[in-house]
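Q: What does the assembled structure look like for these inputs?
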Amino acid sequence: MTGKTLQEQETGRTAPREGRREMTRDVLLTIEGLSKSYPGVKANDDVSFQIGEGEVHALLGENGAGKSTLVKMIYGLVKPDEGRMTFRREEYTPSEPREARGLGVAMVFQHFSLFDALNVAENVALGMDNPPPMGELAGRIREVSEGYGLPLDPERLVGDLSAGERQRVEIIRCLLQDPKLLIMDEPTSVLTPQEVNILFGTLRQLAAEGTSILYISHKLEEIKALCDEATILRRGKVVGTCTPRDSTAREMAEMMVGAELNAPQRAPINPGPVALQVRNLSVPAPSAFGTSLREIGFEVRQGEVLGIGGVAGNGQDELLLALSGEVKTPRDCVQINGLDVGDLGPNERRKAGLCTAPEERLGHAAVPDLSLMENALLSGAVRKQLTKNGFIDWAGTRRFAEEVVKTFDVRTPGIGTAARALSGGNLQKFVLGREIMQEPEVIIVNQPTWGVDAAAAAFIRQALLNRAAKGAAVVVISQDIDEIMEIADRFAALNEGRLSAPVPTQGLTIDEIGLMLGGAHGMHEAEVHHVQA
Amino acid sequence: MFRLEKRPTPSTFWSWGTPVLAVILTMIAGGMLFAMLGKDPVLAIKAIFWEPLFGANASYFRPQLLVKAGPLILIAIGLSLGFRAAVWNIGAEGQYIMGALCGGSVALAAYPAESFLLFPAMIIAGAIGGFIWAMIPALLKIRFGTNEILVSLMLVYVAENILSTLAFGPLKNPEGFGFPGSRNLQQYPSAHNADLIANTGLHWGVVTAFLAVIGAYILLNRHILGFQISVAGQAPRAARFAGVNPNTLVAICLGISGALAGLAGIFEVAGPGGQITDSFNVGYGFTAIIVAFLGRLHPVGILLAGLLMALTYIGGEMAQLSLSLPLAAIQAFQGMLLFFLLALDLLTNFRIRIGGLI
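A:
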């Protein structure tokens, strides 16, 4: 390499940096008046903004604000109804993702498209339009992954990887194509705080080298830490732009929600006797890629909220199933108010006072094609006494469903509406409402506000706190650390099927939580040092 | 360009409109088929749908309608419960045969004693025979996770072989001059499932079919078990959440459908069939699958679908006689009905839009 080319490279790398400071950098992607309608909803309405070269641009908005539709148009998955785009000053109308990739637009989706039974290199090859031979590809994966501080062994099976490592596979697949624009859709929702730091290191390095990044999120602190510019969407429209470094999280949140936000209020607690006791709970993994639960033990007192944090796929689903009774365990593993219920099914446990709300709303907590009224019967039959000698009391069921809809402000044309027709937030309010209004003495919820807009999330958290104030023991399983810190009295981390000893949330720092979540993964710390070095 | 768009909620209109449209399309496509065979399509369709009800010989054919519809409805009601729960009993034909054999054997063993207890005993034996035959796939599925579709279907052929072995062997009429087949139960008063009102075709099997329709309607609309059946079919995880034990449900659904098929078998062999022969079964168990789907797995729908299907059977025979249409053409005609129904089912959950990308 001659001195001249080295110099060129260096100027090439530093020019965007300089440009950033002077705000004169070249424009990479321009979006003008993009609109897209679906039946009954205008997903995007006259959206315009620009992304400069080497810029980290945030696309900020609540669930349903139209972020996904917008990036799908940029990535060629959806065709806009109106408006135009230019990419590197040329007309840009991708008709399919392959064309977008060919021009240098890459995307990391929120939900990974990986095959568990294949190894890393094979998965990367499957997502490439012209994959090189395997040996060469493995070498390049090593090279790129080390170059960007994302260590990854190309030979490992994807089924054995953590969520953060899986995301690396997707990122590296994109980086191998040398993108000009990298779109990241909610990339941190599955990561521990330490993994987030590693990811941010990589993204900053990419930006410094001139790659533009479109970063989609609703997490304001992240955007402040990472992004140069932000475009804020609400109901499909651009409602504002800002420079995140110069704005407060509160200002951005209020633009995003379009209203003032109230933090949940809670009364000081006075824990009563133990309501839920779990002892030495071990459950084998239900499938090859599931997680075994290992010797889980904890107790929750009346009026207390226990938050169980952890990155998805560390046994959250399995824990909920074992507690709800959908998976049976030895008799003395689970105790409700002193009663052994480990070998009882869901309805017997409901009778004993335990209600649960699973994570998957459609298909687990509710039947998609059945009406809200029928879905009210699904878990409410026992405690609300909606059957008599096996015959259904439809009048009583109707009253119960209407009560839930009214009390929990579920926006629906009526209780005859099919569950699948409701928005995620509304259905979640219904599901939570259905459980809470059965007045359980123990309530266990898994990801109660996942994919729910901020207003509904605040409502749900308040409802859980209110239930606790009435003396119920509440267990909140959540990936959202902020949520746990907001409502839980004690915190425990679930990692690879093991639960750490619960500690009081008061005074706990994000770093301490991160280390608890990392648990047995000693390597996360090492990686953090690697990136910082 | 056509494209499909998922409806937010299933369309009630199309849920009931598709069977009607399927019948109309079957008439059109069937008419084309008959025309290609060189027959007058209008006459053929009229022979199938009109003559049995209002034609010159309708007084003979109308009772036949109930005789044919009875077993179809009875079997289809049982199957529909399983199909709603995603438990696929394809072997009703075998359960029907075993019901006829068990119930018929009771009668033949008692011959020639006369007792009012004999007929109930035969009915119970028939139900038990079908029930046990259906429990084989149920238990194998529960214990070993075998596929009930394959096992139940294969057991049809086992049942057919048992039937011919018995018809030519132990159950053969000792006074039958060497002809195959058992004694004729129609000539054995205590065992005969006669018309309750002469020449109406209304025998105990038809009554039982109507009772099954009412029972299934109540079960599905008013009882928690019916609710659990629907939930299990639509969302198995939600069913577990609601406290449903999937294994119990498999046993219940297969058990009920087997018992009802067995009942249909004994009512048939003691009534319109009369004799246990190696060919007394005419495929009711398979046709009932079409009836169940044609009736939207809904009891009242099945009642109507059973009558319609019976009509195509009788009318088909009529068309064979009067227009010398081949049997295969009639069977293809019946198959079309299911084909169009399943194809049009799409409209219940999707609407068709023309033009435009996603």
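DSSP finds 18 helices and 23 strands in chain A.
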